[in-house]
Design a protein that fits this description.
Layout lengths: L2 E6 L25 E7 L6 E3 H11 L5 H31 L3 E4 L23 H48 L11 H4 L4 H57 L8 E4 L1
Parallel strand pairs: 1-2, 4-5
Antiparallel strand pairs: 2-3
Helix pairs in contact: 1-2, 2-3, 2-5, 3-5
Length: 263
């Protein structure tokens, strides 16, 4: 199977679509290309396969918690995709009128966890109404996880740039050893003429500007990506509710909604 590398710089990835199997007529087509997700290391700029990225950062960014931040972000990313797939699964269940799976027996509509008590009997609800209840019950948690996911990647990216610039500055300082000074000793550096120290000061100022600009850029990207996730979820909500309303109208339920508890 050919492998197509896909480079991403912490972009929020939508969940992979579920595979669709169709009957083959005539000669079978070649298998689809397998996409390998690559991440660009913000410290050394190498491109690393996602599955090896955290391990790479443990060495490349040793002495920091960058690897932990990225690892947590990946866990949150998986949780986002799981929630998105779950909401689509509920749509399919309601569409074909199968029993609704309740995690730990907790109803998405009723206030009381196990008793199915609410202002309206959930067993008599239309498919579309219960789908709306699922969205309303999970919207807040979904967006909070998206925000945490973005926050961890944002912090990791800033720390990567900081570490990269820190190492660049240390390398520049080490070059001053030829003048017989200790780069780690500030008083020792003061003995050097201003003409030698000026490039060092200019580099520090450049690094400060870079970090400031980078933070602002990430802030804009974070807002844009959060809006993307909101719009995507709203689009699914509108589509699912519209379809289920049509089903409720053309094929009204004759029996109460059925529920099954799952772990």
């Amino acid at each position: 199977t050919p492998i197509i590398p896909k480079t991403t710089n912490f972009a929020l990835m939508p969940p992979d679509p579920a595979p669709v199997f169709e009957p083959v007529i005539g000669n079978p087509a070649p298998p689809p290309a397998r996409i390998v997700e690559l991440y660009t290391c913000g410290v050394c700029t190498d491109e690393i396969v996602k599955g090896e990225y955290v391990q790479h950062l443990l060495h490349c960014a040793s002495g920091t918690n960058i690897a932990n931040l990225v690892n947590l972000a990946f866990q949150l990313q998986s949780k986002i995709r799981k929630m998105e797939n779950s909401i689509r699964n509920y749509f399919g269940i309601l569409y074909v009128d199968d029993p609704v799976e309740l995690p730990l027996g907790k109803c998405y509509h009723c206030k009381h966890r196990y008793s199915h008590k609410g202002w309206k009997n959930c067993f008599e609800m239309r498919r579309a109404d219960y789908m709306m209840a699922i969205f309303e019950k999970t919207d807040y948690d979904y967006l909070e996880i998206v925000k945490r996911y973005q926050a961890n990647f944002k912090k990791a990216k800033i720390m990567m740039l900081w570490l990269k610039q820190k190492r660049e500055l240390e390398e520049k300082k080490n070059g001053l050893r030829i003048y017989g000074v200790d780069p780690s000793n500030r008083e020792s550096l003061k003995q050097l003429p201003d003409s030698i120290l000026k490039p060092l000061r200019q580099l520090k100022a450049k690094h400060t500007r870079n970090l400031r600009t980078f933070r602002a850029k990430l802030g804009v990207e974070t807002e844009r990506l959060l809006e993307f996730y909101k719009n995507k979820r709203q689009a699914e909500k509108t589509t699912f509710i519209t379809v289920l309303l049509a089903v409720d109208t053309m094929n009204p339920r004759q029996t109460p909604l059925q529920f099954v508890n799952v772990a």
